[in-house]
Amino acid sequence: MVDAVEAIGKARAAVSERADLPGMSLMEHLDELRKRIVHSALYLVAGFIVAWLFKDALLNFLQRPLLKIGKSLVFTHPMDALNLYLQVALLAGAILASPFILFQVWLFIAPGLYQKEKRFVWPFMLATVGLFLAGASFGYFYVLPGAMEILIIKMGHNFTPMITIEDYSSFFLSIILGLGISFELPILIFFLAMFGIVSPRFLWKNIRYAILAVFIVAAIICPSPDPWTMCIYAIPMLALYLVGIAVAWWVHPSRKKAKEAAV
Predict the structure, then answer these.
(1) What SS3 class is residue 263?
(2) Is the dihedral of CA 253, 9, 131, 42 positive or negative?
């Protein structure tokens, strides 16, 4: 089982170690945080404006899994159509602006990192965006069409579907964002391992709990009760966990100390 006390102790030790690094005062940190938030907001607004120019194409992209089975969206409130356009443009704008926003995040945390750790900036940005897009693509091209086919055509063939904009957009975003965020697991493990909070040995020792959690998530997002189909959804997430173990081995401080001791 995960020892919460030990994990909290490691986190505190990591924070204390970082506090010893030469850096800025509290007011300077707050001023830097304000600057990064303002810049990130400006990038988000710019991304939203660009996405709004292509709102019709983006809306067609969003509806495509539904149109493929011969269904279309309906709305029950005068504001539903406008709200959908705004949501689509905001999501697409956030994806467009994400590299620039992530760079602002990196600029904010960089003063608390060692010089050797700062070389991870570009791999971090590419991996973060790439993994999110991979998860979102997996959801859009595999999970969502399968869910539409099974839930509406197979299970709902005795009923007349009335799929509203609000319900479909919520379902769409829960799958796309949920899988996009879940595919960021190696990035989370990267930071936890870099700060010494988790170790490769700890992750491998608790792999059975990770497998259980992955299959629970797969059972939730899988539209079919078929166990083989559920395995198709679980395998990518298990693979990412194993990649996370390799990443933890690569960046964990114990490996660096062992290497220095050998020299």
Answers:
(1) coil
(2) negative
